[in-house]
Amino acid sequence: PVDEDGLPSFEALADGDVTNASDRSCPSSPDGSPRTPEPEEPSLLKKL
Questions:
Q1: Does some domain include residue 2?
Q2: What is the pLDDT of residues 2-37, one digit of tens each?
Q3: Is the pLDDT of residue 44 over 50?
Q4: How many domains does the chain divide into?
Q5: According to the UniProt entry, which residue ranges have a biased composition of type Polar residues (predicted)?
Q6: Are 34 and 46 in contact (CB under 8 A)?
Q7: What is the DSSP string of the chain?
Q8: In angstroms, rounded to a whole number, what is the distance separating the alpha carbons of residues 27 and 37?
């Protein structure tokens, strides 16, 4: 539902379950570094 902002991906990455995010964006990059549609991406990457 919230695919417009990529919220499910953000939550999945923050929770550690990158399977959902990687499958919806980039299966070759589970950490989601190549995709940065929202400003929250670098933030969650820093916390990781």
A1: no
A2: 556 656 655 555 555 545 444 555 445 555 555 545
A3: yes
A4: 1
A5: 19-31
A6: no
A7: --TTTTHHHHHHHHHT-HHHHHHHS-TT-TT--S---STHHHHHHHH-
A8: 16
